[in-house]
Amino acid sequence: MGGNPRAGKKGGGDDFILWVRVKPKARRDDVLGWGREGLLEMQVKAVPERGAANRSCCRQLARLLGVPPSRVSLEKGQGSVRKKFRVEGLEQKEGEALLARILGGRGTG
Questions:
Q1: CA–CA gap between residue 26 and residue 14 (Å, rounded)
Q2: Does pTM surpass 0.70?
Q3: In a domain? residue 105
Q4: What CATH number has the domain bearing residue 46?
Q5: Number of structural domains in the chain
């Protein structure tokens, strides 16, 4: 597996694949940093009902990465706290470098 282990598995083509651990029903939407499992940790105000928390995660990732929300999709983990997202048109290395600049060494674990 190449690249940053925090970003998850290699992306396909021009897409960035990112594994995220999500905490729903939080007081505010926030990206917390890198967790102990090496996953990006986020919290969302939305409840995990009818996909509300998943949609909130997509919007939050789009804002963080500076891409339109339509380019962020949930690939796996619809009913789980561990989710796999795909960001279309953002190469894996580019996405990893962008997150490294934005988050630096910020971690939750």
A1: 33
A2: yes
A3: no
A4: 3.30.1200.10
A5: 1
Question: Which one-letter DSSP state was computed for residue 12?
Answer: P
- Residues near 103 by Cβ (< 8 Å), separated by ≥ 6? 31, 33, 34, 40
* Domain containing residue 28: 5-98
User: What tokens does 86 get?
Assistant: 């795909």
Confidence class of residue 87 from pLDDT cuts 50, 70 and 90?
A: very high
Q: Classify residue 29: in a domain, yes or no.
A: yes
pLDDT per position as a tens digit, 18-51: 999 999 999 999 999 999 888 999 999 999 999 9
Residue 107 lies in a domain: no
Assign 85 to helix, strand or coil.
strand
The CA distance from 50 to 48, in Å, is: 7
For residue 61, the 8-state DSSP code is H
Let me know if residue 30 belongs to a domain: yes
Token readout for 103 is 């988050």
Q: What are phi and psi of 10, to 5 degrees?
A: -55, 145
